[in-house]
Design brief:
Elements: E1 7-9, H1 19-27, H2 30-54, E2 82-87, E3 91-96, H3 99-110, E4 112-117, H4 118-125, H5 136-144, E5 148-150, E6 157-159, H6 162-168, H7 171-182, E7 189-194, H8 204-222
Antiparallel strand pairs: 1-3, 2-3, 4-7, 5-6
Helix pairs in contact: 2-8, 5-6, 5-7
């Protein structure tokens, strides 16, 4: 698996091709070998897209969900840009057209950490309106941290409700208070952990079985 999250397949002895199948493949014209590997690539792409639709990994396990708890499917766009490429008429590479998309796919395929910065967040989500009312998620985070307001009667403070916080605090002020309560500094950069969600790949027996099927279909048409 490369940094661009591409599936690479080279038919050879290590992938358990029989001697007869190897000879059959090598005996074919270059254009036909390319056609066979391209067909195999489209088959593997269909498998990857099916896994994304069903949110399952290569091993058939349920794909890790979103860290924010939302039910929206993961990797929905990554299957659309997969393309099969054939190198030197004997190597199939299933990868993304754009290198940036490939890096994102590789991160989800293998897991790791994504570097984030305030400037990048602004490019993705736009600059926040700090004067806007505090969001409900900010208010919930503040209540979880124990944010309090002064009692209307008597002395002392009491825990604030989500409704009170959203009604009294701006987006910017809520963010500052939340950072202070958590003891956080205004970071310029941070890492976001990404769980592995392997959607590209196949077992050697399945790859070889499909390759043999494709060769037989093409040969039968020739006959």
């Amino acid at each position: 698996m490369s940094a661009n999250s591409g599936l690479s397949i080279t038919p050879n002895r290590q992938q358990a091709l029989s001697a007869r199948t190897q000879l059959t493949l090598l005996a074919l014209p270059t254009a036909k070998r390319i056609r066979i590997l391209k067909t195999l690539g489209r088959y593997e792409r269909a498998l990857a897209r099916k896994r994304i639709r069903e949110q399952t990994t290569v091993n058939g396990q349920k794909m890790a969900g979103r860290t924010n708890g939302k039910k929206a499917k993961m990797l929905k766009r990554l299957g659309k840009t997969l393309e099969p490429y054939v190198k030197n008429a004997n190597r199939l590479e299933l990868k993304h057209k754009a290198a940036f998309t490939g890096r994102i796919a590789a991160l989800h395929q293998e897991g790791g950490k994504e570097q984030m910065s305030a400037s990048r967040m602004a490019r993705i989500h736009g600059t926040p309106n700090y004067s806007a009312p505090c969001s409900r998620s900010q208010a919930k985070a503040l209540t979880a941290e124990g944010y309090k307001v002064r009692k209307t009667k008597g002395k002392g403070y009491r825990r604030a409700s989500v409704r009170e916080i959203t009604a009294s605090l701006s987006h910017g002020k809520a963010g500052v208070i939340l950072q202070a309560m958590r003891g956080q500094k205004n970071k310029q950069g941070w890492d976001i952990p990404v769980k592995a969600r392997p959607f590209l790949g196949d077992s050697t027996p399945n790859v070889q079985r499909e390759l043999v099927n494709i060769i037989e279909q093409i040969n039968s048409k020739r006959g």
